[in-house]
Amino acid sequence: MHRLALAAAAFLVAGTTAGAAADYPSKTITVMVPHAAGGPTDTVARLVTESMTRTLGQQLVVENQGGAGGTLGTGRASRADPDGYTLLLHHVALASSASLYRKLPFDPATSFVGVGLITDVPMTIVGKADLKPDNIGELLDYIRANKDQVTYAHAGVGSASHLCGMLFQDAIDVQMTTVSYKGTGPAMTDLLGGQVEVMCDQTTNTVGHIKSGKIKSYAATTKSRLSVLPDLPTLDESGLKGFEVTIWHGLFAPKGTPGDIVDKLAAALQTALKDPRVVERFAQLGIEPVSPERATPAVLDQHLQSEIAKWKPVIQEAGIYAD
Protein backbone atom coordinates (compact mmCIF):
# COMPACT_ATOMS: atom_id res chain seq x y z
CA MET A 1 0.00 0.00 0.00
CA HIS A 2 2.87 2.28 0.88
CA ARG A 3 4.51 1.56 -2.49
CA LEU A 4 1.25 2.19 -4.29
CA ALA A 5 0.91 5.55 -2.56
CA LEU A 6 4.43 6.52 -3.52
CA ALA A 7 3.83 5.47 -7.11
CA ALA A 8 0.59 7.45 -7.24
CA ALA A 9 2.31 10.51 -5.80
CA ALA A 10 5.13 10.24 -8.34
CA PHE A 11 2.57 9.94 -11.13
CA LEU A 12 0.74 13.03 -9.93
CA VAL A 13 3.97 15.05 -9.68
CA ALA A 14 5.03 13.95 -13.16
CA GLY A 15 1.62 14.79 -14.53
CA THR A 16 1.63 18.20 -12.89
CA THR A 17 5.10 18.99 -14.23
CA ALA A 18 4.17 17.86 -17.71
CA GLY A 19 0.95 19.87 -17.55
CA ALA A 20 2.82 22.99 -16.42
CA ALA A 21 5.27 22.60 -19.28
CA ALA A 22 2.46 22.08 -21.77
CA ASP A 23 0.75 25.31 -20.68
CA TYR A 24 4.01 27.26 -20.41
CA PRO A 25 4.24 30.17 -20.79
CA SER A 26 0.92 31.56 -19.66
CA LYS A 27 2.16 34.97 -18.50
CA THR A 28 4.98 37.47 -18.90
CA ILE A 29 8.55 36.20 -18.49
CA THR A 30 11.11 38.44 -16.79
CA VAL A 31 14.68 38.26 -18.09
CA MET A 32 17.11 39.67 -15.55
CA VAL A 33 20.13 41.45 -17.02
CA PRO A 34 22.54 42.20 -14.16
CA HIS A 35 24.04 45.18 -15.96
CA ALA A 36 22.96 48.71 -16.81
CA ALA A 37 20.53 49.44 -19.61
CA GLY A 38 22.15 50.39 -22.89
CA GLY A 39 25.25 48.26 -22.37
CA PRO A 40 26.39 45.34 -24.55
CA THR A 41 24.59 42.63 -22.58
CA ASP A 42 21.40 44.65 -22.51
CA THR A 43 21.59 45.03 -26.30
CA VAL A 44 21.97 41.28 -26.81
CA ALA A 45 19.12 40.59 -24.39
CA ARG A 46 16.66 42.92 -26.08
CA LEU A 47 17.36 41.57 -29.56
CA VAL A 48 16.98 37.94 -28.50
CA THR A 49 13.96 38.38 -26.22
CA GLU A 50 12.06 40.29 -28.89
CA SER A 51 12.30 37.27 -31.18
CA MET A 52 11.58 34.76 -28.39
CA THR A 53 8.43 36.71 -27.55
CA ARG A 54 7.09 36.04 -31.03
CA THR A 55 7.89 32.33 -30.75
CA LEU A 56 6.53 31.73 -27.25
CA GLY A 57 3.45 33.94 -27.57
CA GLN A 58 4.12 35.70 -24.27
CA GLN A 59 6.09 38.86 -23.59
CA LEU A 60 9.69 38.52 -22.41
CA VAL A 61 10.51 41.69 -20.49
CA VAL A 62 14.12 42.70 -19.85
CA GLU A 63 14.75 44.01 -16.34
CA ASN A 64 18.10 45.64 -15.60
CA GLN A 65 19.67 45.52 -12.18
CA GLY A 66 23.31 46.52 -12.30
CA GLY A 67 25.76 46.96 -9.46
CA ALA A 68 28.40 44.94 -7.62
CA GLY A 69 29.84 43.51 -10.83
CA GLY A 70 26.53 41.96 -11.80
CA THR A 71 26.12 40.03 -8.55
CA LEU A 72 23.04 41.95 -7.33
CA GLY A 73 20.85 41.08 -10.31
CA THR A 74 22.27 37.57 -10.50
CA GLY A 75 21.51 36.98 -6.83
CA ARG A 76 17.96 38.14 -7.32
CA ALA A 77 17.50 35.77 -10.28
CA SER A 78 18.92 32.87 -8.27
CA ARG A 79 16.24 33.38 -5.59
CA ALA A 80 13.34 33.42 -8.05
CA ASP A 81 10.85 30.58 -8.21
CA PRO A 82 12.14 27.88 -10.59
CA ASP A 83 9.04 28.04 -12.77
CA GLY A 84 10.46 29.51 -15.97
CA TYR A 85 9.06 32.99 -15.40
CA THR A 86 12.33 34.56 -14.23
CA LEU A 87 15.44 34.00 -16.33
CA LEU A 88 18.97 35.37 -16.28
CA LEU A 89 20.91 36.60 -19.29
CA HIS A 90 24.54 36.94 -18.27
CA HIS A 91 28.03 36.63 -19.67
CA VAL A 92 31.55 35.60 -18.70
CA ALA A 93 31.31 37.59 -15.45
CA LEU A 94 29.14 34.82 -14.01
CA ALA A 95 32.13 32.49 -14.33
CA SER A 96 34.71 34.99 -13.09
CA SER A 97 32.60 35.90 -10.04
CA ALA A 98 33.32 32.44 -8.60
CA SER A 99 36.93 33.55 -8.02
CA LEU A 100 36.58 37.31 -7.70
CA TYR A 101 34.21 37.40 -4.73
CA ARG A 102 34.86 35.94 -1.32
CA LYS A 103 31.14 35.79 -0.53
CA LEU A 104 28.24 35.59 -2.94
CA PRO A 105 24.48 35.22 -2.41
CA PHE A 106 24.54 32.43 -5.01
CA ASP A 107 26.85 29.72 -6.29
CA PRO A 108 27.91 30.44 -9.90
CA ALA A 109 28.52 26.74 -10.48
CA THR A 110 25.23 25.36 -9.16
CA SER A 111 22.55 28.05 -8.75
CA PHE A 112 21.43 27.99 -12.38
CA VAL A 113 20.73 25.61 -15.23
CA GLY A 114 21.67 26.57 -18.73
CA VAL A 115 19.14 27.30 -21.45
CA GLY A 116 21.72 27.94 -24.14
CA LEU A 117 24.69 29.95 -25.34
CA ILE A 118 23.79 33.00 -27.41
CA THR A 119 26.89 34.71 -28.76
CA ASP A 120 30.64 34.94 -28.73
CA VAL A 121 31.27 38.68 -28.88
CA PRO A 122 34.64 40.01 -30.08
CA MET A 123 36.33 42.83 -28.21
CA THR A 124 38.33 45.79 -29.42
CA ILE A 125 41.14 47.88 -27.98
CA VAL A 126 40.02 51.48 -28.34
CA GLY A 127 41.19 54.91 -27.25
CA LYS A 128 39.91 58.44 -26.92
CA ALA A 129 39.61 60.31 -30.22
CA ASP A 130 42.63 62.57 -29.71
CA LEU A 131 44.96 59.94 -28.29
CA LYS A 132 48.36 60.46 -29.94
CA PRO A 133 49.12 56.91 -31.23
CA ASP A 134 47.57 56.13 -34.62
CA ASN A 135 48.03 52.34 -34.72
CA ILE A 136 48.47 49.41 -32.39
CA GLY A 137 52.26 49.41 -32.62
CA GLU A 138 52.41 53.07 -31.62
CA LEU A 139 49.88 52.45 -28.85
CA LEU A 140 51.95 49.66 -27.34
CA ASP A 141 55.05 51.88 -27.44
CA TYR A 142 53.07 54.72 -25.88
CA ILE A 143 51.77 52.53 -23.03
CA ARG A 144 55.20 51.07 -22.32
CA ALA A 145 56.82 54.51 -22.32
CA ASN A 146 54.23 56.08 -20.04
CA LYS A 147 53.43 53.00 -17.94
CA ASP A 148 51.12 53.76 -15.02
CA GLN A 149 50.33 57.26 -16.31
CA VAL A 150 48.06 55.78 -18.99
CA THR A 151 44.46 55.49 -17.80
CA TYR A 152 42.50 52.35 -18.63
CA ALA A 153 38.72 52.37 -18.12
CA HIS A 154 36.58 49.34 -17.33
CA ALA A 155 32.97 48.71 -16.37
CA GLY A 156 33.66 47.37 -12.88
CA VAL A 157 35.40 44.48 -11.19
CA GLY A 158 34.67 41.25 -13.03
CA SER A 159 33.21 42.98 -16.08
CA ALA A 160 34.16 41.92 -19.58
CA SER A 161 36.23 45.07 -20.05
CA HIS A 162 38.00 44.42 -16.75
CA LEU A 163 38.88 40.83 -17.65
CA CYS A 164 40.11 41.82 -21.10
CA GLY A 165 42.20 44.59 -19.56
CA MET A 166 43.84 42.18 -17.12
CA LEU A 167 44.87 39.85 -19.94
CA PHE A 168 46.03 42.74 -22.14
CA GLN A 169 48.21 44.26 -19.40
CA ASP A 170 49.62 40.85 -18.59
CA ALA A 171 50.44 40.24 -22.27
CA ILE A 172 52.37 43.50 -22.60
CA ASP A 173 53.80 43.27 -19.06
CA VAL A 174 52.73 46.80 -18.18
CA GLN A 175 50.25 47.92 -15.54
CA MET A 176 48.17 50.94 -16.47
CA THR A 177 46.22 53.10 -14.05
CA THR A 178 42.80 51.46 -14.06
CA VAL A 179 39.63 53.47 -13.55
CA SER A 180 36.61 51.44 -12.48
CA TYR A 181 33.07 52.49 -13.39
CA LYS A 182 29.60 51.26 -12.49
CA GLY A 183 28.80 49.91 -15.92
CA THR A 184 29.94 50.11 -19.52
CA GLY A 185 27.83 53.18 -20.25
CA PRO A 186 29.62 55.54 -17.81
CA ALA A 187 33.03 54.14 -18.84
CA MET A 188 32.34 54.75 -22.52
CA THR A 189 30.95 58.21 -21.77
CA ASP A 190 34.24 59.23 -20.16
CA LEU A 191 36.25 57.68 -23.00
CA LEU A 192 34.17 59.69 -25.49
CA GLY A 193 34.73 62.78 -23.36
CA GLY A 194 38.47 62.21 -23.16
CA GLN A 195 38.60 61.78 -19.38
CA VAL A 196 40.25 58.35 -19.79
CA GLU A 197 42.53 57.12 -22.56
CA VAL A 198 42.13 53.41 -23.31
CA MET A 199 39.49 50.72 -23.00
CA CYS A 200 38.86 47.17 -24.16
CA ASP A 201 35.18 46.65 -24.87
CA GLN A 202 32.77 44.51 -26.83
CA THR A 203 32.02 45.33 -30.45
CA THR A 204 28.40 45.65 -29.38
CA ASN A 205 29.40 48.87 -27.68
CA THR A 206 32.30 50.11 -29.84
CA VAL A 207 31.53 49.59 -33.54
CA GLY A 208 29.16 52.54 -33.86
CA HIS A 209 31.58 54.91 -32.11
CA ILE A 210 34.51 53.62 -34.18
CA LYS A 211 32.69 54.13 -37.47
CA SER A 212 31.59 57.61 -36.46
CA GLY A 213 35.15 58.58 -35.54
CA LYS A 214 34.26 59.36 -31.95
CA ILE A 215 36.91 56.96 -30.64
CA LYS A 216 40.07 55.44 -32.10
CA SER A 217 40.30 51.72 -32.79
CA TYR A 218 43.59 49.88 -32.43
CA ALA A 219 43.05 46.13 -32.52
CA ALA A 220 40.58 43.26 -32.26
CA THR A 221 40.98 40.54 -29.65
CA THR A 222 40.07 37.70 -32.02
CA LYS A 223 42.39 35.41 -34.00
CA SER A 224 40.85 36.56 -37.30
CA ARG A 225 39.91 40.05 -38.42
CA LEU A 226 36.33 41.17 -37.96
CA SER A 227 34.08 41.34 -41.01
CA VAL A 228 32.46 44.49 -39.62
CA LEU A 229 35.91 46.16 -39.21
CA PRO A 230 38.07 44.44 -41.86
CA ASP A 231 40.91 46.99 -41.69
CA LEU A 232 41.36 46.58 -37.94
CA PRO A 233 44.34 44.31 -37.14
CA THR A 234 44.19 41.69 -34.41
CA LEU A 235 46.45 41.68 -31.38
CA ASP A 236 47.64 38.25 -32.45
CA GLU A 237 48.91 39.53 -35.80
CA SER A 238 50.32 42.64 -34.10
CA GLY A 239 52.85 40.70 -32.05
CA LEU A 240 50.83 39.43 -29.07
CA LYS A 241 50.77 35.86 -30.34
CA GLY A 242 47.92 33.73 -29.09
CA PHE A 243 45.98 36.64 -27.60
CA GLU A 244 42.29 35.93 -27.91
CA VAL A 245 39.34 37.13 -25.85
CA THR A 246 35.71 36.79 -26.81
CA ILE A 247 32.85 37.39 -24.43
CA TRP A 248 30.09 34.81 -24.42
CA HIS A 249 26.51 35.46 -23.41
CA GLY A 250 24.15 32.79 -22.16
CA LEU A 251 20.56 32.40 -21.02
CA PHE A 252 19.98 30.69 -17.67
CA ALA A 253 17.10 29.60 -15.45
CA PRO A 254 17.12 29.10 -11.66
CA LYS A 255 18.17 25.64 -10.49
CA GLY A 256 15.16 23.33 -10.25
CA THR A 257 13.34 24.70 -13.28
CA PRO A 258 11.56 21.73 -14.93
CA GLY A 259 13.45 20.22 -17.82
CA ASP A 260 10.49 20.47 -20.20
CA ILE A 261 10.28 24.20 -19.62
CA VAL A 262 14.04 24.60 -20.13
CA ASP A 263 13.78 22.67 -23.39
CA LYS A 264 10.93 24.88 -24.60
CA LEU A 265 12.96 27.98 -23.83
CA ALA A 266 16.00 26.49 -25.57
CA ALA A 267 13.95 25.82 -28.71
CA ALA A 268 12.71 29.43 -28.71
CA LEU A 269 16.28 30.66 -28.26
CA GLN A 270 17.49 28.55 -31.17
CA THR A 271 14.73 30.02 -33.32
CA ALA A 272 15.78 33.54 -32.29
CA LEU A 273 19.39 32.92 -33.29
CA LYS A 274 18.21 32.03 -36.81
CA ASP A 275 15.82 34.99 -37.02
CA PRO A 276 16.98 37.14 -39.98
CA ARG A 277 16.29 40.32 -38.01
CA VAL A 278 18.48 39.16 -35.14
CA VAL A 279 21.23 37.88 -37.42
CA GLU A 280 21.31 41.14 -39.39
CA ARG A 281 21.48 43.33 -36.31
CA PHE A 282 24.13 41.12 -34.72
CA ALA A 283 26.22 41.41 -37.91
CA GLN A 284 26.01 45.20 -37.75
CA LEU A 285 27.44 45.01 -34.23
CA GLY A 286 30.21 42.58 -35.16
CA ILE A 287 28.50 39.66 -33.43
CA GLU A 288 27.81 36.16 -34.68
CA PRO A 289 25.12 34.02 -33.03
CA VAL A 290 26.28 30.59 -31.95
CA SER A 291 25.20 27.56 -33.93
CA PRO A 292 21.98 25.76 -32.91
CA GLU A 293 24.13 22.88 -31.63
CA ARG A 294 25.74 25.23 -29.09
CA ALA A 295 22.53 26.98 -28.05
CA THR A 296 21.55 24.09 -25.79
CA PRO A 297 21.28 23.57 -22.04
CA ALA A 298 23.98 20.89 -21.93
CA VAL A 299 26.53 22.95 -23.85
CA LEU A 300 26.00 26.04 -21.69
CA ASP A 301 26.24 24.03 -18.47
CA GLN A 302 29.55 22.54 -19.62
CA HIS A 303 30.83 25.86 -20.92
CA LEU A 304 30.13 27.63 -17.62
CA GLN A 305 32.11 25.03 -15.68
CA SER A 306 35.07 25.27 -18.07
CA GLU A 307 35.01 29.09 -17.90
CA ILE A 308 35.03 29.02 -14.08
CA ALA A 309 38.15 26.86 -14.27
CA LYS A 310 39.74 29.07 -16.97
CA TRP A 311 39.46 32.38 -15.11
CA LYS A 312 40.36 31.14 -11.62
CA PRO A 313 44.17 31.11 -12.13
CA VAL A 314 44.08 34.43 -14.04
CA ILE A 315 42.29 36.16 -11.19
CA GLN A 316 44.37 34.51 -8.48
CA GLU A 317 47.61 35.51 -10.20
CA ALA A 318 46.40 39.10 -10.53
CA GLY A 319 45.48 39.10 -6.83
CA ILE A 320 42.22 40.92 -7.46
CA TYR A 321 39.31 40.26 -5.14
CA ALA A 322 36.09 42.04 -4.37
CA ASP A 323 34.03 41.95 -1.19
UniProtKB/TrEMBL annotation:
Residues 1-20 form the signal peptide. Keywords: Signal. The keyword Signal applies. The keyword Coiled coil does not apply. Belongs to the UPF0065 (bug) family. This is ABC transporter substrate-binding protein. It comes from Skermanella aerolata. The lineage of its organism: Bacteria, Pseudomonadati, Pseudomonadota, Alphaproteobacteria, Rhodospirillales.
